[in-house]
Amino acid sequence: MDTSVSIEIAKHTLLSCGLILAIGTIAGLIAQKIRIPDIALFLLAGIALGPHGLKLIDISADSALNQTILLFGASYILFDGGAALRLPVLKQVWITIVVLATLGVLITAAIVALAAHLVFGLAPVLALLLGACIASTDPAALVPIFRQIRISERVAQTVISESAFNDAMAAILTFSVLTVATGSGHFSPGGAFLDLIKQAVIGIAAGLAFGYLAALLIAHERWAVLAEYAPVVTLVAVIGAYFAASGLQASGFMAVFVFGIVLGNKEQLGFRMEDGEARTLNEFVLTTAFIMRLFIFILLGTQLDFAQMARHWEGGVAIALVLMFVARPITVFVCALPDRRARWTFAELLFMCWTRETGVIPAALAGLLLGSKAPEAPLIASVTFVTILMTILIQAPTTQWLGNRLGLITKRPTKRS
Q1: Residue 328's closest CA among 416, 251, 395?
Q2: Is 50 helix (H, G, I), strand (E, B) or coil?
Q3: CA proximity to 302, closest of 24, 68, 34
Q4: pLDDT digits (tens, 9 = 90+) for 233-254
Q5: Is 240 a domain residue?
Q6: Are 45 and 296 in contact (CB under 8 A)?
Q7: What is the CATH number of the domain that holds 320?
Q8: Bridge partners, 164 (sequence order)
Q9: pLDDT higher at 190 or 351
């Protein structure tokens, strides 16, 4: 490539990133003032700045820059979410989390598939492919919401943990159904279950290893040789945990989430940082996570294909409504109500029914289906993008209102490491 062309591309990329940072900061400030989750305004800002609006930002969804931001951004947001969780709380609700992240994905996918079959007349296997694609909740959307809204700890941590763990299940289900839809293989429930167990075990092991190593290097009484470089250690460990797990064909997102849990609960493992160093690390993590979600959702807004969405928008809205008002409530009550150990109240269950934003992971799965020219991929992508738009713009801004009405808002901030 000609040097001058490379420089022009670099200038355009730098200008786009600067514009995203500037507009995103303003959107974040406005969101704080009007008390709504900032991801909703980021998405709207992206739509306004993108090819369908002011045409100021045009970064392709399949570009290396966008994929890098998506991969690292989602990983770091998950790490931040894991660091905010507390082990005593997770011990109370782990059964609900596991059931929601496994059986819950299957229930959601099946109900959405039935709706897609009735609305679009899709063959059962293609309807299930659509259901699997949008069955998972989105950690990149949910973690920021609960960083801004002080919901009861056990509810927030259950929803965040579910979103971190159900991505692997949704991806496995999507590609298992795809093999059947394309005639390239047969779906095996036993094989899919073993694959899920393998991904979970390896992902958790990678997260535990990197979490313990990072805690050792920044917070051990004798071995904390990198305490002054704790922010850099977290960056390296997030990347390392993700690639260690994905290199072993496991869930990288699960690994970085577990890494965050270990580092966020390092005091219980006997590690302790100096107050000043802990404060510096905390501020760095909060700022970096803010920048990542700013980039992710503004870019997602610029990349929404409205021409494609327009082809199936009526059916897409119908599917999104079924997902929000039928599939999610049934999933929550079936999976969480039997958990006698957690003793969920009706208000808590009702709140969890409403918090199931769809975002980055389903968008990535839809993009992969388009890239592989899967049967009915354009229709599946259209419905996915309509669902993303509706859940983020309807559910996210009303989360605090619902939490207030149900009496789940707490007055004390969530504890941080």
Answers
A1: 395
A2: coil
A3: 24
A4: 999 999 999 999 989 888 888 8
A5: yes
A6: no
A7: 1.20.1530.20
A8: none
A9: 351
25 domain-assigned: no
- State residue 83's pLDDT score: 87
Is residue 115's pLDDT more than 60?
Answer: yes
Tokens standing for residue 239: 């990347």
Distance CA 281, CA 232 (A): 9
What is the identity of the amino acid at 274?
A: E
Task: Kindly report the number of other CB atoms within 10 A of residue 44's CB atom.
Answer: 18
Distance of alpha carbon 115 from the chain centroid:
24
| pLDDT beyond 60 at 415 | no
Q: Which residues pair with 151 in a beta bridge?
A: 409
The encoded tokens of residue 303 equal 């990349």
User: Could you give the number of structural domains in the chain?
Assistant: 1
CA dihedral (161, 241, 66, 14) positive or negative? positive
In-domain check, residue 30: no
Q: Which domain holds residue 217?
A: 62-405
Element (H, E) at 56: none
**Helix, strand, or coil here: 29?**
helix
Two structure tokens written together for 261: 């849990």
Q: What angle do CA 396, 400, 403 make, to 5 degrees?
A: 120
Q: 33: number of CA atoms within 13 Å, CB side?
A: 7
For the record, the structure tokens of 136 come out as 């998972």
Distance CA 330, CA 344 (A): 15
Q: Which residue has the higher pLDDT, 193 or 98?
A: 98
Most distant CA pair in the chain, distance: 66
Closest CA to 192 of 171, 166, 173, 164: 173
Give domain status of residue 179, yes or no.
yes
Amino acid of residue 254? M
DSSP H helices in 122-152: 124-133, 139-148
* Alpha-carbon radius of gyration of the chain: 21
Q: Give the tens place of pLDDT for each residue, 299-349.
A: 888 888 787 788 889 999 999 999 999 999 999 999 999 998 899 999 999
Helix (H) / strand (E) element for 351: namely: helix 346-354
Rounded CA separation 293/359 (Å): 11
Q: Which amino acid is at 358?
A: T
| One-letter identity of residue 318 | A
